[in-house]
Amino acid sequence: MPRAEKALIAQIKRMAGKPGRAVIRGIGDDCAVLRPPAGHELVITTDLMLEGTHFRRDWHPPDSVGYKCLARGLSDIAAMGATPMAAFLSLGLPQDVRQSGVKGFFHGFMRLANEYTVTLAGGDIAESKRGIVADIMVIGSLPRGRSVVRSGAQPGDIIYVTGALGESAAMLEQLMKRGKKAAKDDPLSRHFYPDPRLEVGQYLRARKLATSMIDLSDGLSTDLDHICKESKCGASIVRDLVPMATGVGSRIALDGGEDYELLFTANPSKRIPIEIAGVPVSEIGWITKERGVKLIEGARTRKLVARGWEHFKKS
After folding, report:
1. Would you say 154 and 112 are in contact if contact means Cβ atoms under 8 Å apart?
2. CA-CA distance, 51 to 47, in Å (whole number)?
3. Nearest residue to 90 (alpha-carbon basis) of 9, 28, 34
4. From CA 244, how far away is CA 253, in angstroms rounded?
5. SS3 annotation, 173-190
6. What pTM was estimated for this model as a whole?
7. Phi/psi class of residue 284: alpha, beta or left (left: φ > 0; alpha: ψ in -120 to 50)?
8. Which of 38, 60, 94, 208 is deepest in the core (most CB within 10 A)?
């Protein structure tokens, strides 16, 4: 069973440490007080992690759940080209969660928070009657008017993606088949510990290279469709150019979610490095005036249907 609420909040406050520069007042008051840098504006994202939907206690170590909870929010901040300032966590815990599991969750959470100098500035704790609920909010900042949005792609822009795709979804398939044995075979998989591409997003924003950007949380086919719909355009991608994780087939690479890589577009006149902050960057296609997303496979071209993750979607 978790500690009583007051003792648990005190423990979290100790683990959170001293507030960063942007946080004037953190845990301990009714509200946090933040100060963004002069000439900057705020970007705010929220994300839910639900037991049984996003993780299972018998598959995912507690520190992985905490780490991934924050990583999901930081990945959204990366997709805007922003710098994270503070995080807020609302956590619902059932009585059957062990205190060691709670401690493990916050060890994972704070490990990633400390890596990117993100202050845990507040949140809420409550008893949940049906599984663990973790609701993360992350606030970031960037120079005024400089956010990279989904709606900026133009016909002729080149489409790029960071890293390699499909590793997380491939691990999930293995977990569904083999359970904890799969996790023991690859305990450091990006499925458990995804690395948000904050430095890449900031590099692209600072140099005005990206015309649009999104993080790959729902799968390439679905997230590229989001950019096309927001930008009122279409896209063509070449299957053989899509970087795939080792041993992963094209179906998982195209449709599998939770890669937390960055998908972005850039004007063809811009020189995009093949590596940014140690992360490979691959050109995979181009933006078209004609609506819809097409996949080029050798001499064959077909419509790429968005088959990534979508809540409430009928199977």
Report:
1. no
2. 13
3. 9
4. 6
5. HHHHHHCHHHHHHCCCCC
6. 0.94
7. alpha
8. 60
Domains of the chain, with CATH numbers? 5-143 (3.30.1330.10), 150-303 (3.90.650.10)
- Antiparallel, parallel or unpaired: β 133-143 and 83-93: antiparallel
Total residues found in the chain within this entry: 315
Q: Which DSSP string corresponds to 125-183? A: EEE-SSS-EEEEEEEEEEETT----GGG--TTPEEEEES-BSHHHHHHHHHHHHTHHHH
Q: What is the pLDDT of residues 254-277, one digit of tens each?
A: 999 899 999 999 999 999 999 999
Q: Which two tokens stand for residue 151?
A: 């709606």
Q: How far apart are CA 261 and CA 266, in angstroms?
A: 16
Supply the pLDDT for residue 21: 81
pLDDT in tens, 95-117: 999 999 999 999 999 999 999 99
8 Å CB contact between 141 and 83: yes
Structure tokens at 115: 């890596």
**pLDDT < 50 positions in the chain:** none
